[in-house]
Amino acid sequence: MNVLEFSLIVFTCSIAAGFLGSLTGLGGGFLVTPVLTLLFGVDIRYAIGASLISVIATSSGAAAAYVKEGFTNLRVGMLLEIATSLGAVVGASLVSVLPGRAIAVVFGLVLMQSAWISSRRHADPDTSNMPPDRLAARLQLDSTYPTAQGLRGYRVSNVPAGFGLMWIAGLLSGLLGIGSGAVKVLAMDQAMHIPFKVSTATSNFMIGVTAAASAGIYFRAGYVDPELAMPVMLGVALGALMGARLLFRTPTARLRLLFGAIVALVGLEMIYHGVVGRV
Amino acid sequence: MSQPVRGAVDPRVQQAIGNLLRTGVVVAALVTLIGAVIYLLHHGQALPSYRHFHAQPSDLRHPGGIVQDALAEHGRGIIQLGLILLVATPVSRVAVTVIAFALERDRAYVVIALIVLALLLGSLFG
Fold first, then answer.
1. Which residues, in sequence order, are bridge partners of residue A150?
2. Does B37 touch chain A (CB under 8 A)?
3. What gap in Å lies between CA A105 and CA A110, rounded to an integer?
4. Which residue in B80, B116, B123 is closest to A82 by CB distance?
5. Cβ A128–B24 below 8 Å, yes or no?
6. Which of A73, A119, A278, B93 could form a cystine bridge with A260, CB 3.0-4.6 A?
């Protein structure tokens, strides 16, 4: 297999990964690292380097659409980006310290946790009449988002808990070369009581910045190989675009369950390979 | 009923940020694609090796090989430029956010956005 054939096969697999990532809402780069390490035997450091780059492309593309529609909470995003950037720098620095096997096991665990979260249902309670949270009010985090019935207000709470969870999201992003959108959405939607659609939009908005905080460390350490990152980034971006165009409505419960099961199986496979040392 | 709306940011700022992100991704992807075509035209027949982490070997055995490598390195450089433009997209978005909050005279968020910008630049050039 020469470079051209390898690039084309990786490109095709990356389209599939981006497509599936977009449908599950887990993000484009999520399945790229398992595909590269498990199917092609690529060193996990090269794989997460290529994945991190592709994450910036897909999240920025999605974030552009959300922010124009008015779903994104810019203040919440900016404030929490301090936490994710700090976490990302620590996570990216850990890549050179930890053995590849340990990274694979953590990756598998995060995949399984994300599969669990993505298969859940979401209900947004009306928070607009709640008493304002003092810290959230001081930081002007309460805002509105568009619904079928016009603009709807919401209140934000538990800012310190959300900030702490975002640090962990950043750490995982830097360590695994993922967007860790699932943890970001969890922090906003569960801990801070932000409506799910706003949480998703703001998470996409933050993923690019979080990944950029690790990128410098990745480039300097040589994890970003241009030849490998090129087909991965272009493929994942194209796949994510196709997923967003094709399936505009949210997938049915049965489809979500199927996707969740696939992601969980890939997670198990990563843990197994990490434990037996075949990464 | 009191609608909490203070956190909402000027819609024009939202449009500008959305356009910046979209343009950044499209330009970065195009540059990467151009580099990919040049690289694969000159280097497509070589054998890849990503199984182990190592430095890039160079083929300098005959004059034709040197020219071919130079052109391939050119493609590699253009790909690298595309990837760096991609990383620069969210960083420039934070810079624009600093200006947007300054225009709204929101000092607290100018400081917050500057902290994020400093963290990003420190990590990129540190």
1. A147
2. no
3. 9
4. B116
5. no
6. A119
Instruction: Tell me if B7 and A226 make a contact (CB, 8 A cut-off).
Output: no
Task: Write out pLDDT tens, residues A162-215.
Answer: 999 999 999 999 999 999 888 898 899 989 999 988 998 999 999 999 999 999
Instruction: Round to whole Å and give the CA distance between A2 and B27.
Output: 28
Interchain contact, A78 vs B89, CB within 8 Å: no
Name chain B contacts of A6, Cβ cutoff 8 Å.
Answer: 48
Asked whether the beta carbons of A218 and A91 are under 8 A apart, the reply is: no
- Measure the CA angle with vertex A87, ends A225 and A90; round to 5°: 60
3-state secondary structure A182-209: HHHHHHHHHHCCCCHHHHHHHHHHHHHH
Interface contact flag, A233 B15, Cβ < 8 Å:
no
Distance of CA B33 to the CA centre of its chain: 14
- Between vectors from CA B70 to CA B68 and to CA B76, what angle results, nearest 5°? 105
3-class DSSP state of B53:
coil
In this prediction the ipTM stands at 0.90
